[in-house]
Structure formats: C-alpha cells, structure tokens
Write a structure and sequence with these properties.
CATH class of the largest domain: Mainly Alpha
Shape: globular
Helix content: 55-70%
Structural class: mainly alpha
Number of helices: 19
Radius of gyration: 23 Å
Distance between the termini: 63 Å
Number of strands: 4
CATH architecture of the largest domain: Orthogonal Bundle
CATH topology of the largest domain: Hypothetical protein af1432
Strand order of the largest sheet: 1-2
Order of helices and strands: HHHHHHHHHEEHEHHEHHHHHHH
Length: 409
C-alpha cells in the first residue's frame, strides 16, 4: 500500500455514503412500518396511537424509521436544554455529596416510573418517554426558588407577565432550541401538551381523565397554570402522577444525606400504607395506580394511597422545603438571581450599549438577545422576557459565575 494514499483515498466510498438517507432499503422500511402498525393495533383502546397523532405545527415527511414520538424523544435528549439539566438543582444546591439528586436524575426517575405504569396499562410508552424526558427542560437554576424569583421580577415590571417552568419548557422547545438549523424542535401536539400540562404540585389529585377536546390554543404560554386544562392524553396523565411519585421519597433521602432532617421519622410517612423508604413508596404508589387504572379511561389512585401521598408531600413542605437550612440557601439564590435580573433588564433596554459593556456577562447576554429568534424576527416581545429566557437557561454554576463576574470587585 502506498504511503501517499490519504485517509480520503482509503475511505472514499465510505465517506461518500455518510449522511445519505438510503442506507435502509425500501423492503426493510416496509417491514418496519408493518411492525409499527402492529404495535399500534395492540395498544389499549385508551392509548394514544402514533397513527392518531395530531401532528406537528410544521408538517414533516414521514421518512424516518422511528415513529413520531421516538423522533420527538431523540430531539429532546440531544437538545442543549436537556443536557443542562445535569447541572441544575432539584432541591439541594451545590452539595458536597455527589449522590444528591440533580434535575436530570429526577427526569430519569420520572421516565422510568411513568414507563413502568404505561407498559403495565398497555399505553404508548414512546409518547410517555418523550413527555417525561422533556417535562422539566423549562426549569431555572436553583430549582423552584429560581422559578419564584423570575415570576416575582416579571410581575414587578408588568403584572400581566409571569414565569412558570411548564410553559417555559414549551417555549424553550418551540422557539429557543434548534433542529436542522431551524428554530424550535417542531414536536408533536401530544408531547408538547404533556410537557406544558405535567404540573406535579397539585397534591390533592386522585384521578386524571384526558381532556381530549384540547386545541393548539390551549397550549399557549399566555394561559397561567391555574387556568390550564389537564393533559390531553392518558400518557400525559401518567407522567403527571409519576412526577410526584419520583420526588416524594427521593427528597426525603436527600434531606437525610444533607442533614436537613435527622431521620425519616422527622417526616412522618404513613409507613403502614405507603412505606418508609423511597423504593417502598415508589413500589406501593406505582402498583396502586396500575391496579386502579387498569381498563379505565383515566389514571387514578385509591383514596387511601392518595391521602397518604398528599400527607407525605405536605410533610415534605413543612419539614424539608421550608427547613431553616433550605430557606437560607434560597435567600442566597434569591440575591443572586435578583441581581442578575436587574443587571440584564437594564442592559436589554440598550442592547448597543450592552454590547460594549466592560462585563463579559453583559456582553454575552447582549449576544443572546441579538440572536434570539423573536428579536431577529422583529416580534414585539416584552423586554423582560428576554431576561427570563436567558436566566432560566442557566445552570447553577453559570449563574454563580455571572453574578461573581458582575458584582464582585
């Protein structure tokens, strides 16, 4: 073999085929389509079939070997917003213990729990996974503390504005993320609906029936959580329940690891009903939902399981989420995010000046605004929304770095 042969010469045929879409023959594609159709037919009558999807905002050709929800799943897990979740707080910020739950770990738990329930009920697990994996991409740094700060700051400027991580998640996936050099991931209606409707903070829920009459207008960011309808699909209902199940016991474990509580008995779990360990709690609630939802057109739990879950969630609020150490951390986070918001809001009112700022953080923010899809399109977006878009996308460490760069001499 000649030493003069280049890599391109040696692998010319292979390189020429990279990126081509005809690697799978039409015969193989036809077989895959038959398998997918058979899977659809075998689903429960209450499941959302891929063939019945309401589609995407911008129609796409159906040339992929994956079904529509598998494609959505891929777009979500390869998005930058999803990757950043590993560096965002669930409850406890910047822990010395590497085993404390991050936002990404919580998402993985929701995916697993919801898929387990959905598989047992013969629902569309691909749709469940896409919703579960995307449900928290709209979360801020520092968890719900960051969410409260952004909501407060927006309302101080304009009472009509608000911030909720559910609607922000859809905003991120619809506008700020990119797919094939286009703005937005162009996800299916069912996945977008499940993400904006996933709210896991309604503790008293016992039964969820799909709101099948929902339209695109119901997915608007302008509808606050309190006025929003529930999920449109059974699969979305499963994820909404799984969200609560995923964090109730895990937060107790993390509180123990960080010393916020001395023992699980500081949070009096109704152990004779729901269990005392995270695994017992998850196992009991998952089985209860499966038992009470089988062959029904709704997702529900028994009254005694629902009462026990609600009681434990409220005890978590009293003993963990409002504990002295957690509140001290939240005050620290509040100071940082309010400082960032004030600085960026001043900057967004004069982007040209911000581009020449001495602060590298302000210059990066100005670049973000100039490249924002709505700014480039000339859309009349309220200026504070650019600020909340930017801060909400930060990881914990990036927010700390920005604050230190701008405010520490």
């Amino acid at each position: 073999m000649s030493d003069n042969l280049s890599f391109q010469d040696l692998y010319a045929d292979s390189l020429a085929s990279i990126g081509k879409s005809d690697k799978i023959s039409e015969a193989t594609r036809a077989k895959i389509k038959i398998i997918q159709d058979q899977k659809d037919k075998l689903l429960s009558v209450n499941a959302t079939k891929c063939s019945d999807s309401r589609g995407r905002i911008t129609p796409e050709s159906d040339g992929d070997i994956r079904n529509c929800y598998e494609r959505d799943m891929g777009r979500i897990i390869y998005s930058q917003a999803f990757r950043r979740l590993k560096h965002k707080t669930q409850v406890f910020f910047n822990p010395a213990n590497d085993h404390i739950c991050s936002r990404l770990e919580h998402v993985i738990y929701v995916d697993y729990i919801a898929s387990t329930i959905g598989s047992a009920l013969n629902l569309n697990v691909d749709l469940i996974r896409a919703i579960a994996l995307g449900h928290d991409v709209g979360h801020t740094p520092f968890g719900h503390s960051g969410e409260r700060v952004l909501n407060k700051k927006l309302k101080e400027i304009d009472p009509k504005l608000y911030f909720e991580h559910e609607s922000n998640g859809l905003r991120v996936l619809n506008i700020l993320e990119k797919h094939n050099d286009r703005n937005g991931l162009n996800l299916t209606f069912e996945v977008r609906d499940g993400i904006i409707s996933h709210c896991g903070e309604y503790y008293s829920e016992r039964r969820l029936e799909p709101c099948k009459d929902k339209t695109e207008e119901d997915l608007s960011y302008l509808i606050p959580k309190k006025d929003r309808k529930g999920p449109a699909t059974m699969e979305g209902c499963v994820v909404r329940f799984a969200d609560k199940i995923a964090y109730v016991g895990r937060d107790i474990e993390d509180a123990l690891r960080t010393g916020v509580i001395a023992s699980e008995f500081d949070v009096p779990v109704v152990s004779d009903v729901i269990g005392s360990s995270n695994s017992e709690i998850i196992n009991f609630l998952v089985q209860d939902i499966i038992e009470n939802s089988m062959d029904k057109g709704c997702i529900m739990m028994s009254d005694h399981a629902g009462d026990a879950l609600e009681h434990t969630l409220k005890e978590n609020v009293a003993k963990i989420y409002t504990a002295g150490r957690v509140k001290t951390y939240e005050k620290y986070c509040d100071v940082m995010l309010e400082g960032l918001f004030d600085a960026f809001y001043e900057a967004v009112q004069n982007i040209e000046k911000a581009e020449d700022s001495k602060s590298s953080s302000i210059r990066k923010f100005a670049e973000f605004v100039k490249n924002h899809p709505e700014y480039k399109a000339g859309i009349d977006t309220p200026l504070p929304i650019y600020v909340s878009d930017y801060i909400a996308g930060m990881t914990d460490s990036f927010a700390v770095g920005c604050f230190n760069e701008m405010y520490k001499s």
